[in-house]
Structure formats: C-alpha cells, structure tokens
Amino acid sequence: MAFEIFTFSFMHRAIISGIAIAILCSVVGLFLVLRRYSLFGDAIAHSSFGGIALGLMAGIYPLWTAYGVSIISALIMTRIKDRFNISGDASIAVLLSSGIALGLVIIGLSGGFTLDIFSFLFGSILLVSVNDTILILSLTGIILIVILLLYRQLLYSTFNEEQAKVSGIPVEKINYLIVFMAGITVVTSIQLVGVLLISALFVIPNVTAIMYGKGFKQTVIISMSFSIFSVVAGILVSYIFDITPAGTIVLIAIGIFGCTIGIKSAGLLSRHN
Amino acid sequence: MLKVVEIDHLTIEYPDVKAIDDVSFTVNQGDFLGIIGPNGAGKSTLFASMLNLNTKYNGTIKFFGTDIRKSKNYLKEIGYVPQKPIFEKNFPATVNDVVKMGLQKESDENKVDEILQQLWIHELSERRIGELSGGQQQRVFIAKALVNNPKVLILDEPVTGIDQQSIDLFYSILKELNSKQNITIIWSSHDLDAVNKLANHVACLNRTLFFHGESDDFFENDELVKQYSEASMQEHMHHH
User: Fold this and answer.
1) Is A177 a domain residue?
2) Option in B53, B97, B101 nearest A162 (CB)
3) Chain A contacts of B80, Cβ < 8 Å?
4) How many CB atoms lie within 10 A of CB A141?
5) From the list B86, B93, B144, which residue is nearest A215 (CB)?
6) Which of 2.40.110.10, 3.40.50.300, 3.40.50.200, 3.30.460.80 is the CATH number of B3-239?
7) Tally of domains within chain A
8) ipTM for the assembly
C-alpha cells in the first residue's frame, strides 16, 4: 500500500513540483533572511490573495492575476520604502494588509468564499496539473539561472550594501531583482503550501541551515536538502494519513529546526553556530 | 607625476552645517597620504563623496584625470576598507567567500589564495567571517580590497577597536603595499604617531583643510603639530 502511492501520476507531479518549489524557496529565501526581510515573503503572499480574488471574480486563471498583483505591489512598496524612508517591517505590514483587504472586498463583491479560495489559502499540491508542473519547473529553472549568473552581485549586496556600491555593483537594481524574484517564487509556491504558510518555506530551512553551514554555498545546499526532505516527506505522510500536506510539510521543517536547536544546545555544533 | 586624485573647491553642506568647506588638494601616484582631524572633522564625509556614495556636493572630484560625475569606471581601480564593516554576525560566508566578493572576474581565483597568503590569513580561509577577531576581520577586508590589484587604497580609520599587535601588523602591511607595490594610499587616522611613521604626505582636515603637504614639513613644524593637537583635544573634550 505504501509503495502504491508512487504509481499515481498526480503524486509524481506533486513530488516533482514540490522539489522544484523547495529548491526555489530556499535559495531566494536565504537572500531575504540575510537581509532581515524574512516576512517579506509573507507580505507578498498576502498581497497575492488580492490578486487571486481578482482573477476568480474576473474569470481569469487566478495565479496569473496573483503574479501581476503581487509583483507590481511588491515593487511599488519597495520604491515607496526607499523614497520615503519607511522601515522594512512597517512596509511589510502595509503590503500584507492591503492585499488581504483587497481580496476580502473583491470576494464580498463576488458573492462570498468559494472552495477555490480555500485551495489557494492552504495549498493544493496534489491537484497540480501537467501545465502547472511545466510552469513551476520553467520558473524555477529561469530563477536559478539568473541567480547563478548574478551570484556575486546578489551575495555582495546582501553582505554589505555600501561596500558593494563602492565596488561598482548596481545595488538598487539588484534589490529590485530580489523583490521581483521573491514575487515569482511566492506565487509559484502558493500551490504547494498556500498563502498562509509561504514564509515558513522561505525562512525555516534557511535559519536551520545557517546553524550548520560555514560558507554560503554550503549553507544553500544544506537549506535545499532540509527543504526538499520536508516537502517530499510532508507530501507522502499527509497522503498516507489523509491530513493536509501544507501543515505537515511545515511541521516537518519545524521539527528539523527544533532538532538543530537541541543539538546546538547540547554543544554538538562548533563555535560559530 | 601622475595625478591620482584632484579635489577642487569641494564643499558639502548639510541643512544646518558645512561638513566640508572649500577643500582642494591633489594626491599623486605612489603617495601615502594620512588625513588627520578630530571626530566630526568631515573625514568620512569626504571619503563618501570620493567613493560616489554621496553625490550631493559642490566642486569637482577627479580620479585619474576624469570627473567622477562623468564616469564610475575609476571605482574598479580602488580598494576601500571601511571604518567598521557592518554585516550580519551569523552571515554564512567564509573568509574565502568574503574576499571573492571583491573579485571583479571569477577567473582570477588564484589571486584569492595569493592575497590570503600575503596577509597571513590563508589558514583562516574556511572559517566563518563572524567568528574571527576584529584584527583578523580587518585583514580579511584589506584582502578583499586588494584582490583586484587596485591602484589606490582608501582606508577610513581602520584601527578602531583592534588590539595593538594587529595594528602593528596592519601598519607594516600598508607600508609594504605602498613601497613595494607602489599602491597609492589615502588613509584617515587619529593616530598622529602612526601617520608620522608611515605617511609621506599629510592633510589636516577640520571641515576646512588647514594643512596639506609633505609629512616632514608638518611634523617638523612644532607650531602646526601643537595647533592640530589642541584643536583635536578641544574637539575631543567637546565630544565628551
């Protein structure tokens, strides 16, 4: 019975998409975590809720409107933050609440909550179609290529903006690029864990990996491994026990984080940790 | 002699105060210029403008004969070591990662090892940057600044909060870079004795430039040294 689940094509799609999203969230998320922007993913996810509602009302595929609304609003918010010197956490709060507010009003106008809305709030990884899977794999590929090409610029401007500027790196453009990539990553990941739990995938594997890895690349690989493990184990366990995949995935990630804290408290990790 | 930096009538105004008031000076290739001045004298402000971090100033700043408002290419020829580099304490970057950030072309990776050897930090290359001492971190940032073979090294009072042994090592490294590799050094410092020992040119800055010339002319002129020390001391008292 346990092996039977590997024969279902929906399970193949779920696991392949899940792995791609796990990789994407840990790489993009690491830049956000190190920039003290951990909750930014959450804010974009909430603003995408407005976009999803808009799509459902207008009869457009909701993820398309979600991509549009969340990327545009994240870029505008970043611009406002820089221009008017608003702090990072306050701008996150503005972005987060405006998306939800927009979503609630639109849902109200179009006659209340539907089943569709719930699948976006809590994820529906077992329902991804072949087209969804292709889209997820393509976006993951594109973003990873961009990150590889601009690796030094991304890392340097995250490490120290001022010094990166002096080295001739266009720090402002890089910041917008990170916001843009975060927007795409969040909306792509909605199908896996839903709007409400996105930031878990951005943050938890990364804060865990930072406690193990020494260098940057090592930390990325550790974070990806934890993330992939959580997602695959989460999908399988949730299917077997008939529980929600999103919650299971996040709880497994938290479990790994908890074990790491335990190991660290016991003094089993070296000093830098 | 090749002029590396030409600063002409530089004035930087904040809403209620002139941080830099009509400052002009030139730095030639191979100079080791010590910029001295009390806290709040405008040293960091001057550097910020020279490094294109602050573009709101009057006057002109030229590097290698070109106005920095016209081209930013000069930045590739500059290594900069900030006063205290700020980074997340648990940032997952090794010494090797940090030095590589300074590298303009990935292909020069051998250069990283070379520079780590030269600054006596090759044994630390796989350690995380946040777990090193202040003196070790400072050498890492010098390594990062040097990894592109810069023509000019700009250092902003980089010995704050570092032990004496590391400071001595740091000074001997600077001396060698200047004398053996002919790197032009522009260095702001509080330490008059060190400036006397290392620099061949001195600029005294306290919003205006009240001396600029050969180091010997400054240190052999008791009146000037006294004047500087008093000014510095008053500022010091003022700050406390």
Assistant:
1) yes
2) B53
3) 163, 166
4) 12
5) B93
6) 3.40.50.300
7) 1
8) 0.85
Determine the structural domain holding residue A238 and report its residue range.
4-265
**Residue B163 neighbours by CB distance under 10 Å:** 12
- The whole-angstrom separation of Cα A40 and Cα A94 is 11
Express as a percent the part of chain B with pLDDT over 90. Answer: 37
Question: Does a structural domain hold residue A271?
Answer: no
Degrees, nearest 5: CA angle B74-B41-B161:
85
**B contacts of A209 (beta carbons < 8 Å):** 92
Q: Is residue A26 domain-resident?
A: yes
**Interchain proximity B126–A214, CB inside 8 Å:** yes
Total CB pairs under 8 A between chain A and B? 72
Nearest chain B residue to A272, by CA: B131
CB contact under 8 A, B128 and A214: yes
In-domain check, residue A160? yes
Instruction: State the pairing for strand pair B58-63/B3-14.
Output: antiparallel
Tokens of A234: 């989460």
| Residues on chain A bordering chain B, Cβ-to-Cβ distance under 8 angstroms | 34, 36, 152, 155-156, 159-160, 162-168, 209-210, 213-216, 218-219, 271-272
Q: Where are the alpha helices (DSSP H) in A110-169?
A: 115-122, 130-149, 151-159, 161-166
Choose the closest CB to A272 out of B98, B102, B128. B128
Closest CA to A181 of A217, A210, A141, A218: A141
A174-212: pLDDT as tens digits: 999 999 999 999 999 998 888 888 889 999 999 999 999
Whichever domain contains A73, its CATH number is 1.10.3470.10
